[in-house]
Amino acid sequence: MSRMEKLTSAEADEAITAIEGWVREDEKWMQGSFRFAAFLDAIAFVGRVADAAEEMNHHPFIAIDYKKVTLRLTTWSAGGLTELDMQSAERYNAIYRSFKG
User: Fold this and answer.
1) Pairing relationship of beta strands 30-35 and 68-73 according to DSSP bridges
2) Parallel, antiparallel, or unpaired for β 61-65 and 68-73?
3) pLDDT in tens, 27-42
4) Catalytic activity annotated for this protein (predicted)?
5) What is the pLDDT of residues 57-96, one digit of tens each?
6) Which CATH number is 9-100's, of 3.40.605.10, 3.30.1360.20, 3.90.1150.10, 3.90.380.10?
């Protein structure tokens, strides 16, 4: 399966379950939230997420609420969730772990 091919509902559910901290919002979206000790840590995280998103050419919706960052993912061209969304979520989790030291 291509990483840009839309996953079935069952495939998406199974994949998301394996990614710590991420939940499926609906048929098209998944979401992860990240908490930080300080506002500037949250902003630094967003900068690193942006760098990774550019490298992958796959960009999340980003919401910053003081020390909490929420990321939402979908693949517009596929009409829903794909393997690329799962890979992105895993990468963002790895970035977050680097902040937790």
Assistant:
1) antiparallel
2) antiparallel
3) 899 999 999 999 999 9
4) (4aS,6R)-4a-hydroxy-L-erythro-5,6,7,8-tetrahydrobiopterin = (6R)-L-erythro-6,7-dihydrobiopterin + H2O
5) 999 999 999 999 999 999 999 999 999 999 999 999 999 9
6) 3.30.1360.20
pLDDT score for 101: 63
Structural contact between residues 98 and 45, judged by C-beta atoms closer than 8 angstroms: no
The count of residues in the chain is 101
Q: Which amino acid is at 94?
A: A
Angle (deg, nearest 10), helices 39-56 and 83-100:
150
User: Which residues is 10 bridged to in the sheet?
Assistant: none
